Task: structure prediction
Amino acid sequence: MAAFRSFRDLDWAMFIISMALCALGVLQIYSATNGTRWQGAWWRQIVYIASGLLMAYVIAQFDYHSIMSRIYLIYAASIVLLITTALIGNTVFNSTRWIKVGGLTFQTSEFVKIVLVLLMARYMTDLKTPTVEWPDLLRLAGLAGLPFLLVIKQPDLGTALTYLPIVIAGVLVAGLRWKYLLSIGLFALVCLPIGYHFLKPYQKDRLASFMDPARDPKGAGFQVIQSKIAVGNGGVWGRGVTKGSQTHLGFLPVSHTDFIFSSFAEEHGFLGVVVALVLYFLLIMQVVQNAQSAPDRAGVFICMGVGALLLFHVLVNVGMVVGRMPVTGIPLPLMSSGGSNTWSVFLMLGLVNSVRLRRFISH
Amino acid sequence: MPPIESHQQEREHSSEQYLRDDTKTASTKIAIFQYLAVAVFIFLISGFWKLQVQNPDIYSEAAARNRVKSTPILAPRGKILDRDGRVIVDNKASYSLILNRDQVKWEHLPAIADALHLDYNDLTAKLRRKGDQPQIIIKDELSRDDIAFIESHRDSATFPEMDLINSSRRLYPQDGFAAHLIGYVGEISESELDEPAYADYRQGDIIGKEGVERQYNDQLKGVDGQRRVLVDSLGHERALVDPDDQLAAKPGQDLQLALDLDLQSVAELAMEGKRGAVVAMDPRNGELLAMVSRPTFDPNKFTGRISRADWQEISGDPFKPLLNRAIQAELAPGSTFKPIVAIAGLETGTIDENTHFHCPGGATFYGHYFACHLKTGHGDVNLHLGLEKSCDVYFYNVGNKTGIDNIAKYAEIAGYGGKTGIDLPNERESTMPSTHWKMRNYRQKWFAGETISVAIGQGAVTVSPLELASAIGGLAIGGNWYRPHTLKGAKPELVREGHFNPDNVAKVVSGMSAVVNEGGTGYGARIPGIMVGGKTGSAQLASNTLLKGTAAGREMKDNAWFVGFAPVEAPEIVVAALFENGVHGPFAAPIVRDVLKAYFDKKARRDGAPPAAASAPVQPAMFFRLPSFPAPVQPEEHLAAYPAFAIMSLGTSSDSRIPGGHL
Result:
């Protein structure tokens, strides 16, 4: 056993990349919150990162198969947790996402992501057919749809949407017939306008502002416009740490959490952006590389689920910052300030390492 | 990749095992995912490229607009000083309300208008007017209540568009002291904004509307600055932007008038309760020393925004207090025109000092009987006596012999038939009839009979007090006319020269001296120790003639004129007084005497000599509460020595008002 648990076999490239991103994040949190009431957030973030690293190391020691074998139980527990959140959770900004344990508040929906990644891996490895069939799709839709609806109910559309890439990645990697793909696509097209009908007014506003930010520059379009101004204001070289006027004069909304990349872009410019995005790309490629070297399909699904989730997070969050995606309140992995997301990302990277440590195993 | 290779060898297991452990089929999909990731990152980076590299200027400007708020720093208007540097018009610090255009919410406006007692329609009209300025001044001279309202409501949640700025309120002397000369300021009107002359002005700017405030608006106004502050998204000020980026206000220049406050207060006092005007000027250079017009108005009511009631009261007054009678009342000069006729007669050689005519109390010319003001007649009258007694019959004859065109020629040299060209807005032209004038204006021939009326300053001839002072002053100094002007130290401008025979001028001046000093009609202007020359005049308005048959016409009395200068041998000052409905010229003479006496008393004080013995006590000028002039430490002492002067030449401290009420 000791052979594959070697400390040396951990993904050190991934470690260095993720630490670099965390460092940029901490620096940006420090800068963005400097002189505000969130001033201590950078220090708390370091604590989250350190504890997240520990969690990642611990979970990497577990055999992912053993977690997967109990995944339906864990899934049931997480559904109960989401329901508990809805019942006794803390309500902040009209949204009930957090649950208080001791002195810490957890965003339960963040941890459901990991459960879904493992659930997907388990379901796909249990497949008896080379492709995903209709009954499978329906079951998967039910399994993912339950937490999805619970999270939407909070309401937290952004986090709920992050469950989709996990399922989609799983289904596509497992193999889907073309006609299934086509019919699902058509079904989605039909559903979109109906789904729009069920959106909250502020969500409709956000969507409309995404299409045309100038529509209501003081209202829903405000965040997008201010974010674009902040990014553009950074120019090629950036304004310098703590020098971004958009960030420091409060024009940028939540500049240390969801819009951290906007303030990062303002202070570090295009060069900083390229460095950070290349780091994200390398991180995702590193996860993908672990998928390629995975010893079995379960490992592939885990790595691809994590990779797809990270890519989705970066696409939606960073895309929102430059006005290429609608405003959804999802954090930027490893950079945004916040414990739950940091931990869930580290737990997922730990799972990827768990796969990596077992790549030379043969059954 | 070695792990995959190794798994490929395990294909031979059961189908379930095959599915479980086959990672080969996934590798194509993993590759697709990699391409997808590359596409996503290119998509994202291109977004940043567009914003940060292609056109960052748009966004850095937007960021600057976001964070930098500029508010105007209003340049204080220059003070207006008298010839001795004493302040006539000062500024008082006050606050103005501005609205930030880009933050204005229309639904807020009714509440704001209501709380600040503004007209809602005016307010919206102001905001709707096209313009590039980001802020608009909505109300000046805010009261305590206004400021309290603004301070408590300009937070980001209530009315963030409101902002307070420092401004200054114009502080004029009270009770209309020198109001017509100084004028007043007011907010630029909508119609003025459309005029090319005001192209550089913007809405809410304060401009001079009348008097020297208007004439010298450009010097007085200064250049507004800009205060640029860093604001956060809630509009709270964080810090000043770079000091280099601040635009300091350039205060307006002070304006020193030739006006002498001592003379002005005496003249104001002398006119108290009367209607008319007084003008004092230095004929040697044209400096305007005093200018009073009555009735007057309080210019303090005009600064900023005049209340409707005040405006209606002032504009609806039948005596037209806004009219500056000193330059705008064109009235028949009456007998004050006689010196002009005299010089015309002498210079044309029509008469000499010995030419005499008999006055039986009237005479007939061209079939019409023209009466003299003295029904019993003056007997044999020569030039000297004719001027002294203001004998009409003498001047009927002189005028008749000299002819209208000769009279007009010399009158025009003296300034009749035009404006003096003083540096004040809206001066009116005097009228000097002539054959040419009548043909041009009425397409009629001149009737010789008309000359008889003109010879005693009636008929079509008109003059304003300033024009009269200028005409007689220029004649008295030998026939040189300087353009009257309001500023001290302005270069004297000789506009007309008579090239008169000095003997002729001396004869006329001697006659005018007799008017005052030898028992003539101007005895009221006599000042012991000072040789005063002058001429009375009693004249009817042209319209009065038409009204004679009516009851109103009978009630209208003649206007009294007096124009005096001193000392006769070398005149330094000429004063013209118009006392509307004062009936007889002699009644206007004491007004002129008071001003002349104040002038020479002040001169004597300056030279260290005792003031001329008072022939009649001059009332202390306690009637004008001049806010800019602090009271003397011990007013009584000064008042005893020379009241009016004492009031005006004061210390600097204390803002206590000059004791006493006003009429």
User: Anything to note?
Assistant: Residues 124 and 174 of chain A are 6 Å apart (CA to CA). The two ends of chain A are 14 Å apart (CA to CA).
